[in-house]
Amino acid sequence: ATVHPFYGEHQAGITTPVQEHLHFAAFDMADGATRDDLVSLLKDWSYAASRMTQGLDVSASGAVGGSPQAPPDDTGEALGLPASALTVTFGFGPGLFDARFGLASRKPAELAELPRFLGDQLIPMSSSGDLCIQACADDPQVAVHAIRNLSRIAFGRAQIRWSQLGFGRTSKTTVDQSTPRNLFGFKDGTANILADDQEALKKNVWVAASDAPAWLAGGSYLVARKIRMTVEVWDRLRLAEQERTIGRNKGEGAPLSGGSEHTEPDFTKAGKTADPAIDPRSHVKLAHPDFNKGVRILRRGYNFVDGNDDLGQLSAGLFFLSYQRDPQQFIGIQRALAKDLMSEYLVHTGSAIFAVPPGAKEGSFVGAGLFA
Ligand code: HEM
């Protein structure tokens, strides 16, 4: 069974090999909550997360070891299940940095709600939040157990604002992992930043000591976007049109300019007609670093299906998660995607941004540097 250490230089759940399942939750601090409430909450969360990521109950007395006359500390549904590669990653939204908690002066200048993008149909209650928790595991029950118990621990101090279940990773973060597929049926994560690419991580993912603020060094910024995919419409497209939209072929994920999955796309190569082999409005071209000032991001999203809508269509899509050193990296790419052929089949319904502090030292808690 895989166990990822909770404590360390960076929080787990970013470069960690992407697990199969996600439960993500955004929280708002309770009205009237104080700085002490926030600090005690972060301490309690870190302690519980450090235990659950080892496959343990949230506390020593746990699900069945406490008084029979008291509600158990742990809800119990993960009893007997292994750690299942669980990672729990905490983030701080823009709303946390205000007078309530005496944090206004510690707010990163880069941390602001994302601007409105073309194609946004945002639902306020699927967006924003003071805090977030990303729980990823290879067993969905383990991920849900983590969010359920952490929200229970938050009782009276913070409450869930919105949450999202994800099944099926849509990226890879290590060379050994196979490239999974999203709900358009295409390989996703081919050109992602990988855990062993220290140079790319330093340049694109981790906030550096030379960036401000100092408490965020070794951390990152997390963008979450709930993107509905109109799969019924997509499924009626000719294969050639699907491939043109992405810029890669469906079978292997090879760029339409030729080669195999990991061949670099050649955007200058002519196709069968005089047109370029890779359409200039394809997703891969518009998102490619060559056309985005060299900028890259670490993608870590998941597929979702939240039942169906009133028209009997699947409420399906991609819960997009990306980690970057500066939110401008995401903003720049998302603006470039305004012309994306794929946007005809997408609606963005949720949006949030969080500053993700560095990892905690054993015995300390995530975010401690913010209060030092
Ligand atoms: C690449 C699908 C949204 C950024 C890709 C690829 C696919 C894909 C199939 C090609 C394989 C790969 O390299 O991973 C999707 C779908 C989306 C979506 C279905 C929405 C439902 C986004 C968003 C962004 C983004 C919102 C960022 C704003 C990228 C980047 C690449 C990529 C940076 C790699 C480009 C390269 O370097 O070749 N995406 N994507 N994608 N996507 Fe997306």
UniProtKB/TrEMBL annotation:
Stretches the record annotates as Disordered: 245-271
Residue ranges annotated for the Dyp-type peroxidase C-terminal domain, each copy included: 179-360
Pfam families per record: Dyp_perox_C, Dyp_perox_N
Predominant location category: other
Biological processes annotated in GO: iron import into cell
Gene Ontology MF term list: ferrochelatase activity; heme binding; metal ion binding; peroxidase activity
GO cellular component: cell envelope; cytosol
Domain Dyp-type peroxidase N-terminal: 11-167
EC number(s) per entry: 1.11.1.-
Cofactor names: heme b
Localisation: Cell envelope
InterPro entries with a match to the protein in the record: Dimeric_a/b-barrel, Dyp_perox_C, Dyp_perox_N, Dyp_peroxidase, EfeB/EfeN, TAT_signal
Cofactor note: Binds 1 heme b (iron(II)-protoporphyrin IX) group non-covalently per subunit.
Reaction(s) catalysed (UniProt annotation): heme b + 2 H(+) = protoporphyrin IX + Fe(2+)
Keyword GTP-binding on entry: no
Family statement: Belongs to the DyP-type peroxidase family.
Job description of the protein: Involved in the recovery of exogenous heme iron. Extracts iron from heme while preserving the protoporphyrin ring intact.
Protein name according to UniProt: Deferrochelatase
Organism annotation: Microbacterium mangrovi
